[in-house]
Design goal:
- The chain has no helices and eleven strands.
- The chain is mostly beta strands.
């Protein structure tokens, strides 16, 4: 079994900052990709940022220059530093991981339970 547990969400004023964390635990051999997605009410889930095992990153255009994704491979943890937050960043943020449970090259995809981020004055 594999679990992804997010933390760090909350209520913040526009222009403020939050840092999300996600820890992966369980039967893990290696993690290829870790990422953050978000889903606002009435909207589809969308990619926010992702980071490959070698360190390459991708960001949604809407968060470039404001959000930074990073990971600690030794701790199976991914972070999302969110600065200059806007009301439109309000959503449930989900952690996602694409990983191998054994040395065999078979990937499995997992989601966390989500953490609410609300940007409001």
């Amino acid at each position: 079994q594999v679990q992804l547990v997010e933390s760090g969400g909350g209520l913040v004023q526009p222009g403020g900052s939050l840092r999300l964390s996600c820890v992966a635990s369980g039967n893990i051999f290696s993690i290829n990709v870790m990422g953050w997605y978000r889903q606002a009410p009435g909207k589809q889930r969308e990619l926010v940022a992702r980071i490959i095992s070698g360190g390459s990153t991708n960001y949604a255009d809407s968060v470039k220059g404001r959000f930074t994704i990073s990971r600690d491979n030794a701790k199976n943890t991914v972070y999302l530093q969110m600065n200059s937050l806007k009301p439109e960043d309000t959503a449930v943020y989900y952690c996602n991981a694409d990983l191998q449970r054994t040395p065999r090259p078979t990937s499995y995809n997992y989601w966390g339970q989500g953490t609410q981020v609300t940007v409001s004055s």
